[in-house]
Amino acid sequence: MTTPLRLGVAGLGTVGSGVIGILQRHGDLLAARAGRPIEITAVCARDRARDRAVRLEGYEWEESPAALAGRDDVDVLLELIGGVDGPAKAAVETAISSGRDVVTANKAMLAHHGQILAETAEAAGVALRFEAAVAGGIPVVKTLTEGLAGNRVIRVMGVMNGTCNYILTRMQGAGLTYEEAFSEADGLGYLEADPNLDVGGIDAGHKLALLSAIAFGARVDFDGVEVEGISRITIEDIRQSADMGFRIKLLGVARITERGLEQRMSPCLVPADSPLGQLEDGTNMVVLEGDSVGQIVLRGAGAGSGPTASAVVSDIVDLARGVRVPTFGRPANSLKKIPRSKSASTARYYVRMQLQDRPGALAKVAGVLGDASVSIDRMRQYRHDTATAPVIFVTHRTNQEDLETALSGIETTDVIEGKPVAIRIEEV
Amino acid sequence: MTTPLRLGVAGLGTVGSGVIGILQRHGDLLAARAGRPIEITAVCARDRARDRAVRLEGYEWEESPAALAGRDDVDVLLELIGGVDGPAKAAVETAISSGRDVVTANKAMLAHHGQILAETAEAAGVALRFEAAVAGGIPVVKTLTEGLAGNRVIRVMGVMNGTCNYILTRMQGAGLTYEEAFSEADGLGYLEADPNLDVGGIDAGHKLALLSAIAFGARVDFDGVEVEGISRITIEDIRQSADMGFRIKLLGVARITERGLEQRMSPCLVPADSPLGQLEDGTNMVVLEGDSVGQIVLRGAGAGSGPTASAVVSDIVDLARGVRVPTFGRPANSLKKIPRSKSASTARYYVRMQLQDRPGALAKVAGVLGDASVSIDRMRQYRHDTATAPVIFVTHRTNQEDLETALSGIETTDVIEGKPVAIRIEEV
Questions:
Q1: pLDDT tens for each residue of A138-173
Q2: Closest residue in A to B214 (Cα–Cα)
Q3: Mapping DSSP to helix (H, G, I), strand (E, B) and coil, where does residue B34 land?
Q4: Which of B388, B342, B384, B336 is nearest to B362 (CA)?
């Protein structure tokens, strides 16, 4: 096979420029690996006049992504525009209906429309690939879809938003408040135009929904992901959980229990000396657990031009080599609708509250916990110069309902100030 | 494609039984993922009478691996026998010449004969795959061959022998001597029949040679790997390198410099707080560095029935899906003979010696180091009740020739007892 594979590149931002850069720099290397040349036929972007980091001479310019997707001299559309709907989705739909393969980095589009797009692509006999959509340069989609294909997957976990991990790491390491760390990340250009996509856990939740589909053969169900961001995390929680031997991470967890598919993207405590606990700054980490392979940990850059472009190019090389694997590892129309199960699995919890400094206060709180069947593993009361003392409990394994009963019970006692804060401890 | 993929399983030890177990347990799951059923036609092993962990009813029994490989009703030979030559290689050669695909877990055979076997397989149009041969359950062959296909690879590093890492971790954590930790590992059944394959670094060296070929497009050159085992590592080195902030690991490193291909499997110091430094017990870790992706770290079980079988089955599912990628990521006959370059790259070194406790002794040693252009980053002299004091130097970056000049110079002074010990510090 020496016919070139011809690409149309829609979107010339950070990722698009990165991909073009790799293709220009490594043409011979890629051809040797793919067994055939890989060429760019045409490109398109919103603003033609803008200066870009790469040369575009020799490529045709198309006015719209959809027009690019429908060109006869394009075998593969690279959709590097972004956005849930709009031109990105229109271009992908045109490519599929015109019989072109698609490589995309668009987690938001796939989290919302991946199920139907994959079904349409498979019905049309074209590929829809998205390695770059999850955890940047880490080849986690390939690892899960192909590398662990012999396993019943037990659990998927991941720190998949580098910005959140940067903020939490700065709070931990430099003692910044959430607001200070957020401003710092903003100043460094780490935040999306809508910061809630990052700190609200939505971007990472998109990624988790895609991994869940592969891992458990489930229809993509982003609405089934319990998403909670990091904005409620205080410096006290960071400090006191560290004192108990934990780190706080925005952690995605997906698992199947007898009650259904549990998908959560939320702040969790993990042991400080675990690989997840030791993950610093903007790095991503995904932990995959299979019944035969045990635990596989993947770590790498989750964002940035080079890493994301690396993932896009790996999809392109696969297509050039003739590798065809269903988008989610099995035919999309065979993915099952698995009932949602909100936090069905039991967990230990970290619980923090401000307790009034008077006789019987602790007994009252401990009594409420006991009445709700929440049993205490460890407790610490800290020194204080105020009328209330910070008190931390680490519970034994309990279910979320019992914990919530206990928390409301504690809130209605007259011995605490404000609300108790609870954060799940994920065993890793 | 609903024609079954038919397997012949040669070797029914830990790995073979593990593979059969997965195929029996997960038949439906694998068929859904592969798009077709995967079946075992026939098996063979040295001893038919032996009790095995899996049921073998329904499979034909062949008297020899080669006979199994040549059967008309076998599409893929699973070579799970082991050994550089002998029945394993004969069976693989028969499979190739009979037009059957091959999946093997045999690193020793591939390190020695992988080049010619891959060329023969590619000429015959059959696949030769070996995910299970390197780092057990970690899909590192796939990650390097496919996941990082868009990268010029800069460096490959890995802790790929769990037994050595177990011994070093026990010396570090429990204060055991090398001999004590070795005996403990032996008692746990962690050592190969010839322990030198493990502690001599040979097994891990085989794996490194295979990764090098993929990473750098180089012909497989195990003889070009500088191999040094862990038996010279003393408890003093473990303790004093820890005191300097390091851990000692049997670390494989392969990189290209302007002088050629450098491949080493040897004890190295790595920062205690790096992912490699934190790796405990029998776990494996591979660090891949690409020009676009940066550093990708993969961690998981490097041995054992389940993890190794998981890797074998991932190769099988790929073949069932019709995925065909050259054994080393590009045609084997296009792999280049790259000149060997023994430790061409500079490094910092840890140097330990027993220095006589008399005036001018330290000055003499420091003078020799300076004369050889080896400059000192840090130095510690430890308390002692004897006539000589343990002294540790950490040098700045130096090349190996200068270091060796310095070491011989130090040895010929009259101020040290015994020989100085040097261990390379790998920047990670």
A1: 999 999 999 999 999 999 999 999 999 999 999 999
A2: A33
A3: helix
A4: B388
Residue A266 contacts by C-beta under 8 Å, 6 or more apart in sequence? A201, A226, A227, A228, A250, A251, A424
Opening angle at CA B59, ends A152 and B114, nearest 5: 70
Three state DSSP letters for B108-160: HHHHHHHHHHHHHHHHHCCCEECHHHCCCCCCHHHHHHHHCCCCCEEEEEEEC
Mean pLDDT of A46-60: 90
- A307 contacts in B (CB within 8 Å)? 292-294
Q: Report how far residue A324's alpha carbon sits from residue A102's, in angstroms, rounded to the nearest whole number.
A: 12
Higher pLDDT, A301 or A387: A301
Sign, Cα dihedral of A70, A72, A74, A75: positive
Across the interface, of A275, A292, A324, the residue whose CB is closest to B22 is A292
Could you say which of A293, A299, A309 has the minimum Cβ distance to residue B307?
Answer: A293
What backbone torsions phi and psi does residue A373 show, to the nearest 5 degrees?
65, 25
Q: Do A30 and B290 touch (CB under 8 A)?
A: no
What is the distance in angstroms between the Cα of A248 and the nearest Cα belonging to chain B? Answer: 19
What average pLDDT does the segment A214-231 reach?
97
pTM of this structure: 0.96
Give the total residue count for chain B: 428
Mutate to test the interface with A, among B143, B146, B152, B328 (most CBs of A within 10 A): B146
**pLDDT value of position B192:** 87
CB contacts < 8 A, A to B, total 187
CB-nearest to B143 from A35, A143, A324 is: A143
- Contact criterion met (CB < 8 Å) for B306 and A314: no
B376, pLDDT greater than 70 = yes
* Alpha-carbon A245 to chain mean position: 25
Q: Is residue A89 annotated as part of the catalytic site, yes or no?
A: no
Cα(A313)–Cα(B292) distance, integer angstroms: 10
Statement: residue B406 has pLDDT above 90: yes
Instruction: Report the C-alpha gap between B9 and B246 in whole angstroms.
Output: 44
pLDDT digits (tens, 9 = 90+) for B37-51: 999 999 999 988 888
Centroid of chain to Cα B425: 19
Q: Which residue in A has a C-alpha nearest to residue B20's C-alpha? A: A150
Which of A33, A216, A247 is the best residue to mutate to test the B interface, defined by the most B CB atoms within 10 Å of its own CB? A33
Q: Please tell me whether residue B43 adopts helix, strand or coil conformation.
A: strand
- B227-286 per-position pLDDT tens digit: 999 999 999 999 999 999 999 999 999 999 888 999 999 999 999 999 999 998 889 999
Across the interface, whether the CB atoms of A150 and B314 are under 8 A apart is answered yes
The mean predicted confidence, pLDDT, of chain A is: 95
